[in-house]
Amino acid sequence: QVHVVESGGGLVQPGGSLRLSCAASGSIFSINAMGWYRQAPGKQRELVAHITSGGSTNYADSVKGRFTISRANAKNTVYLQMNSLKPEDTAVYYCNARGVRTTSTRGDYWGQGTQVTVSS
Question: pLDDT tens digits, residue range 46-59?
Answer without folding.
Answer: 999 999 999 999 99
